[in-house]
Amino acid sequence: MVEVFWYVYLGLLGTAAIGFLIKGEKTIFYIVDFIISIFTWFGLFGYVTHTIMFTPLVWQIVFVGGLIWDIVFSLIKGVKNEELEGIPTYIRFILMLVTTLILLGPLYYGLFNYAF
User: Fold this and answer.
1) Which UniProt keywords apply (predicted)?
2) Angle at which helices 28-49 and 89-115 cross, to 10°
């Protein structure tokens, strides 16, 4: 039963990544974000399907780099979000950090288990 939730989460992440690629901004930061998302998605795919891809060192680098990128990218994107202009900056920062941890926590949990 737990594997079903992992497959659903994997599908949701893949769909979101493709959706952002199609509808999102085409700046260099969003393109880099998409490329990093693809690597982390493949790592989670390997974890969920118990498929060995590359070496653990590669996935350790992807884990650390992806985690740093996602936290920094989401915080910068959230703090500069025009829809949240009425909210103080420190509250926006906390909201984006909590949202990022909730939405991407399972991704990095699986990626950590796959890498280490």
Assistant:
1) Plasmid
2) 40
**Which residue shows structure tokens 């996935």?**
59
**d(Cα 17, Cα 11) in Å, to the nearest integer?**
10
Residue written as token pair 């199609």: 22
- Residue 47 structure tokens: 């974890």
Indicate the pTM of the whole model: 0.85
Nearest to 33 by CA among 20, 50, 47, 19: 20
Q: pLDDT digits over 30-49, tens only?
A: 888 889 999 999 999 999 99
Distance CA 79, CA 66 (A): 20
CB-based contact 74:94 (threshold 8 Å): no
Q: Which amino acid is at 94?
A: I
